[in-house]
Design goal:
This protein is an alpha/beta fold. The chain is built from eight helices and six strands. Helix 2 packs parallel to helix 4 and helix 6 packs parallel to helix 7. The C terminus is likely disordered.
């Protein structure tokens, strides 16, 4: 409850799951992140870790970071891309203060951030909160929802019924109307949604690889 209003009472319980980060710097957190990324491993940072990293300075950051809600996306990305996994932050549901602080610090440092979550009311609330920090929605339009729901129905994949109270979707006003019409939730681990997210990550990885190789051709 305290974290919901931005008050931290425990720098160790608040945490964020990340993968694919290789920041510069010689302090403990950047060094640990580079080691774990080189081993195709995710990292869990506490609020204390995030604060220590931020206070030591942010160097050699990715140009773009992807943000998801569910660990299944992180697991799939690491399995697919290994050491070349693009920078990925997982909020593990509603983001802890550690996630909020990390995302806002990266955005303030000039990193572009793209946010995806479940197509349910909680997921839309998370996207709304993160986009208010300066992130952009990632495949979170009405068209994305309808396409995912239609594909699941076509392949006889049952979807949970939409429950809870509607939330506004300022980035795509038609989205909440589409969800009320179809009355189903589509989660990130749905195979159609997950495939689309991995496709975007693959494109970002390839683009990053081309950029990093460019100086060799000069």
């Amino acid at each position: 409850m305290w974290e919901a209003v931005g008050v931290s009472v425990d720098p160790l319980s608040s945490r964020v799951l990340i993968a694919g980060f290789t920041p510069g710097g010689h302090t403990a957190v950047p060094h640990s992140l580079r080691l774990r990324t080189s081993a195709s491993l995710a990292s869990v940072l506490t609020l204390a870790d995030v604060d220590a990293w931020m206070s030591s300075g942010l160097f050699e950051l990715p140009g773009r970071v992807f943000i998801c809600e569910n660990p299944e996306v992180t697991v799939a990305a690491l399995s697919e891309f290994g050491v070349s996994c693009p920078a990925l932050i997982c909020t593990e549901g509603r983001p802890h203060l550690a996630a909020v602080r990390l995302i806002s610090s990266l955005i303030d440092a000039g990193v572009s951030a793209s946010m995806h979550a479940d197509f349910d009311w909680d997921g839309l609330s998370i996207v709304g909160a993160i986009t208010q920090q300066g992130a952009e929605p990632w495949r979170m339009s009405a068209q994305d929802y309808v396409a995912a729901a239609t594909a699941a129905a076509a392949h006889d994949r049952p979807l949970p019924r939409l429950t809870g109270s509607a939330v506004p979707t300022q980035w795509s006003p038609e989205l909440q109307h589409a969800m009320r019409k179809h009355e189903v939730e589509v989660h990130e681990e749905d195979e159609g949604v997950l495939a689309a997210l991995l496709g975007d990550l693959s494109e970002a990885r390839d683009r990053s690889g081309r950029c990093s190789r460019a100086p060799d051709r000069l």
